[in-house]
Amino acid sequence: MFSAHAATALALVDSYGAVAVFAVFALEGALVGKVLPARTLFVAAVVAAGVEALAVLPVFAAAVIGATVGQSVVFVAVRRFDVDPTSLPLVPVGDGVIDGVSRWFDRWGLPAVAASNAVPGTRGWLAVPTANASAVSAPRFAAASLVGSAAYVGALLAVGVAVALGFGSAAEFLGAEWVAAL
Predict the structure, then answer these.
(1) The pTM is what?
(2) Segments forming the whole domain that contains residue 9
(3) Domain count, the chain
């Protein structure tokens, strides 16, 4: 019933917990992990942890901090070492995307970093143009990245809790033995 991504995500969460969430979100933040199932992994981790706040807090923190660390690594690599991550085949960001997000940053400034991190599909892409074409410091970039990532992961947390509660309702409705067989 579950896809291969969901099965892999559950296996990672089962074996490594919040460390797996941190690693996958750090790779996603570094633009390298866009092919990894970060959203699926996070929702699976929330479902596995349950819906209590103390149980999901480490998963939430691992995702937000991981994404922020990954984006900050890209920012520093571009700024200090003149690295062009878009030239790597692992980074699925084309020149048109970079031009578009550069215009977005030029118009809105640092709040655009937070806003882009809250939107699936554009997460992390402002790290390259912000590092190249602005005087924004690394700590200010990291703070904006953290705010946007927290909003994004908060929305994923809501999805994860809804899924977890849905599984609980399905277990009650169908009988725990049938759901356990899934």
Answers:
(1) 0.78
(2) 4-181
(3) 1
